[in-house]
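Hello,

I think I submitted the 6-O-phosphono-beta-D-glucopyranose job twice by accident. Can you confirm which output corresponds to this input? Input:
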Amino acid sequence: MPIKALLFDLDGVIVDTAIFHYQAWRRMANSLGFDISEEFNEQLKGVSRAESLDIILAHGGLTLSDETKAELAARKNEWYLELVSQMTPANILPGVTDFFAQVKAAGLKSALGSVSKNARLILERIGMLDDFDAIIDGTKISRGKPDPEVFLKGAAELGVQPDECVVIEDAVAGIEAAKRGGMLAVGIGEPTVLTRADLVAGSLAALTLNQVLSLSAMNR
Ligand code: BG6
Ligand code: MG
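Support: Only one job matched these inputs. Its output is below.
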């Protein structure tokens, strides 16, 4: 199958909001009397807000009521949005703009596939809201990554088949979602962490569209 579309994760691929999520969750954990490390944070990437909170509370050995959990999740989101509100197009990660130009020039489609409910707000802040042919975010899905729902909906909205898509992801859960959806997956980060990816690059600046397309040829 020739590649017809690229499905991009947002946090950690297009913008470095992954660090904002970590800072806000860490602030919340600290307020509850424990800490979370950067290594621990890896398992929160790509995971929904509610599930992330459950993982963090289990780590801190806390069992709280649904009401308290809702309050904590809302507070974390307020702290996170304080950081997001300062974002500008300067926060677009290196290589993203050039990579998008290559995708457009090649006539390929692109979709956003993020479980974040803040995705549109972030795209607006960085001036990229009109750069995608489809946007699937946390408001359109019922299951977070590693469930493939977000990417399968992206492919469907673009009118392409899963095996005509390549997912670009920084999260272990996101690579897993792509694989479960029958898609090729490019990891952005460390090969030792993103072990299931078909190809791993340090950032979009270190990746060319040709590398992605030849990957599909290799897997045919
Ligand atoms: C993902 C992030 O993109 O979105 C996760 O990788 C985050 O860390 C999830 O928990 C949900 O985001 P939000 O903005 O709806 O809390
Ligand atoms: Mg991500």
